[in-house]
Amino acid sequence: MTLSSTLPSEAPGKRTGRGVARGPVTAAERVARRRALLNWVAVHSLAIAAGLFFLLPFVFVFLTSVMTDSQALTTDYWPTSWNWGNYGKVWNTPGFLTWWRNTLLYALAGTVLTVVSSLPVAYALAKFRFRGRNLAMMAVISMMMLPPQVTIIPMYLFWAKQLGLGGSLWPLIIPMAFGDAFSIFLLRQFLLTIPKEYIEAARIDGCGELRTLLRVVLPMAKPAIAAVALFQFFYCWNDYFGPQIYASSNHDAWTLSYGLESFKGAHHTNWNLTMAATLLVMAPVIVLFFFAQKAFIEGVTLTGVKG
Amino acid sequence: MSLASATRKGAGATAPAARTLAFLSPWLIGFSVFFLYPLISTIYFSFTKYNGFGSPTFTGLKNWDYVFNDLPAFWQGLRNTLWLVVVMVSLRVAFGLGIGMLITKIKSGVGFFRTAFYLPYLAPPVAATVAFAFLLNPGTGPVNHFLGEIGLPQPGWFADPNWSKPALTLLAMWGVGDLMVIFMASLLDVPKEQYEAAELDGAGPFQRFRYVTLPNISPIIMFAVVTGVIQTMQYYTQAFVAGRVAAGNAGNSGQQFEPGYPNGSTWTLPQMVYNLGFQRFNYGAACVVALVLFVISMAVTSVLMRRKSGFMASDD
Question: Do B236 and B270 touch, CB atoms closer than 8 A?
Answer without folding.
Answer: yes
